[in-house]
Design a protein that fits this description.
The chain is mostly helical. The chain contains 7 helices and 6 strands; from the N terminus they run H-H-E-E-E-E-H-E-E-H-H-H-H.
Length: 239
């Protein structure tokens, strides 16, 4: 399903042929690095972790699969003991590590572009995106330009989108930890209401301004999911 969704995203962006292979490469590397950021931070706080790529991206999961075929899953650490519960601050760092390492990767790519005589310009449109302009002998390499563009697009735009306070995105998890820490009783409902409003607004923005149906469907589904969770928890506005 990971490859199928990636294929649909590539075709949706008008990509085919060698461009589709380049898109898959950039997507795979970027999502793997994103989840690696989560997994390394989980290990930093005393638990083992493994990575699973699935239809809508990836997951960094605590523990390890204890069979040679990766199933059933074991959430016990290698050492066999259960470490202390994480603090909200530690959980926030784990959530932020994914998009954070992506932005670091984007900064490294930008540095390489400038070091090789190129530069970065911003695209025109509703959302200015970083567009690499390769320099020197690399200027005429269309495939390399496409690879660098895809890597920058995924690791800047989607890293920032992932920080929006929409559950279960990383930004939603960060907002949830902050609000629950401030108010254990109403924090969950506040985070869900923020997720509903932000997800709905992003769905409209994606359709009307960005004209991206896939992104619209993604945020619409997340907003609906948060609203349904609200109904299960009572649904009253906590303000």
């Amino acid at each position: 399903m990971f490859w199928l969704v990636g294929l649909l995203m590539g075709f949706g962006g008008g990509t085919d042929g060698i461009g589709l292979i380049i898109w898959f490469s950039a997507l795979f590397v970027s999502i793997l690095i994103h989840e690696l950021g989560h997994a390394l931070m989980i290990r930093r706080f005393g638990r083992e972790a493994y990575i699973v790529l699935y239809a809508m991206g990836g997951l960094a999961i605590e523990g390890r699969p204890h069979s040679m075929y990766g199933s059933p899953w074991s959430f016990e650490p290698y050492t066999g003991y259960s470490p202390r519960s994480r603090t909200p601050q530690e959980q926030i760092l784990i959530s932020a590590a994914g998009p954070g390492i992506e932005l670091v990767l984007a900064a490294v790519i930008v540095g390489i572009v400038y070091a090789t005589g190129g530069h970065i310009r911003l695209s025109e449109g509703a959302i200015p995106l970083p567009v690499p302009v390769l320099g020197g002998e690399l200027r005429g390499n269309v495939n390399l330009h496409l690879l660098v563009f895809d890597l920058l697009y995924i690791n800047t735009f989607w890293a920032l989108v992932n920080l929006l306070p929409v559950l279960p995105l990383d930004g939603g998890q960060i907002a949830l930890q902050i609000l629950v820490h401030q108010d254990p009783w109403a924090g969950m409902q506040r985070a869900l209401w923020i997720s509903v409003f932000t997800g709905g607004a992003m769905a409209i923005f994606s359709l009307v301004v960005m004209q991206q149906t896939f992104t619209m469907l993604l945020f619409a589904s997340l907003a609906v999911s948060s609203y349904l969770t609200l109904q299960q928890t009572g649904g009253r506005r906590p303000w």
